[in-house]
Amino acid sequence: xxxxxxxxxxxxxxxxxxxxxxxxxxxxxxxxxxxxxxxxxxxxxxxxxxxxxxxxxxxxxxxxxxxxxxxxxxxxxxxxxxxxxxxxxxxxxxxxxxxxxxxxxxxxxxxxxxxxxxxxxxxxxxxxxxxxxxxxxxxxxxxxxxxxxxxxxxxxxxxxxxxxxxxxxxxxxxxxxxxxxx
Length: 182
Description:
single chain; seven-stranded mixed β-sheet
């Protein structure tokens, strides 16, 4: 089967959201243009990494082009659109600044299905055969996306003040307290 490339250029809506209770959340990124909607699942750390990298790219653009400005876009705080049908789970993530268009390209590639996860050569060869969600967004929209992503990531379980690990509603076994519940 040949890989599918879900291209959104331009995208009308590009957001991150979750389904489930804190501690059991599944993170999704959705892209929509018109009636075409694509949802992909990813890990919390991947969402945080995308947001950090987008903000880093925007800082670099501001430093290299101090006289240029970009439009501010309000943060999209609406929930994910339903139905949430996962197209694939994200493995490889790529971000790039398209300088001639002054836009940011975000590529989210599906995890390679490999029988032996230690076989790196097979994973590299099969990487070209995986589905990709490619979204191109304006600089203002990228900033709005990153702010929402950071808010969604931070909305999970509160961190333990001693070990930094997440605290469940029933507490947690804190390694800094020699295994006692906090």
